[in-house]
Amino acid sequence: MCGRLVITSSALEISEHFGFSNADALTIERTAHFNIAPTSQLLSLRRKGEDTVLEEMHWGMQPLWQSQYEGRAPVINARAETITEKPMFKDLTISGRCVIAVNGYYEWLTTHHAQQKIPYFISAKDMKLINMCALWHTRVIGATAVKEVAIITVAANESLSAVHHRMPAILDNAKIGDWLSGSADHSVQLLKSWSGDPLQLREVSTRVNAVRNNSAENIVPVATQVLPTLFD
């Protein structure tokens, strides 16, 4: 799954990454964040009529038919293999596709019998922005309309599978337009394990396990914390 993110780029840098010519019109202010958890706001790129817009969305999605008072945990990821079948997502593959640009994300290696969970930071070279495919909808809570988003995951590629069996669905910039504006059938075909420039994987401190720890220290490589067992 994909449950923690790192975004160090400013809103202006993200806007320019997506090729906006009128980046000065973007008024959203963002500071570097090294431990973004679900329920945070994520700057998302989506289609709005004939235009493409950037706006903040709430990370974590509830079914539109569910009362906000039922207390169930929000859905933060959607499996690419089932999004065209599940009632919660199938309509969104037609009208609710978006992209979230991040500088990296965390994944946890679970050792034998889950005795240890070791965090790893995954990023592109030089912390360049990564485009994650996502789905969104508008949920009405009382008198407020809230845009909610879930990141799509696929099977991990070979280089990442040693840590976790899933990874976000990632696109290069040239395919963003196809994902946002193509037919649902064509767009879903883009959801594959990443085969572009290799992503960098490094073990980091377990301090990232606590959301309150939010500094560049989170992504500094550390010596291995994996303790051997009789079974590993």
From TrEMBL:
Keyword Lyase included in the entry's annotation: yes
SUPFAM superfamilies in the record: BB1717-like
Pfam family, one: SRAP
Keywords annotated in UniProt: Covalent protein-DNA linkage, DNA damage, DNA-binding, Hydrolase, Lyase, Protease
Any GO MF annotation of the entry: single-stranded DNA binding
An example Gene Ontology biological process: protein-DNA covalent cross-linking repair
PANTHER family given in the database record: ABASIC SITE PROCESSING PROTEIN HMCES, DC12-RELATED
Similarity comment: Belongs to the SOS response-associated peptidase family.
Protein name (record): Unannotated protein
Phylogenetic lineage: unclassified sequences, metagenomes, ecological metagenomes
